[in-house]
Amino acid sequence: MYIVFVVADGGADLERYELRGFDEARGLLLQTALTLAVGEAAAEFEHRDLHWGNVLLRPTLTEEVAMRLRCGCEHRLRR
Prior knowledge:
Structural class: alpha+beta
Largest sheet: 2 strands, antiparallel
Radius of gyration: 13 Å
Number of strands: 4
Order of helices and strands: EHEEE
Strand content: 15-25%
Shape: globular
Mean pLDDT: 83
Strand order of the largest sheet: 1-2
């Protein structure tokens, strides 16, 4: 099965986005990895074309993002 997501404004792709420091780069890496892990655990999601142009970024005012893996591990990322 294949799924295509279409979004009106998913943000700027990573190829064109200018990261504003180590903390933002770290957050990007952790959020991407954890999102893929949660998708894989919850729905056997597999991204077969992951590259810089497929990662969309949009700044947010959210202070914290929480993700829970099937093993019960919870990860909280602060802005």
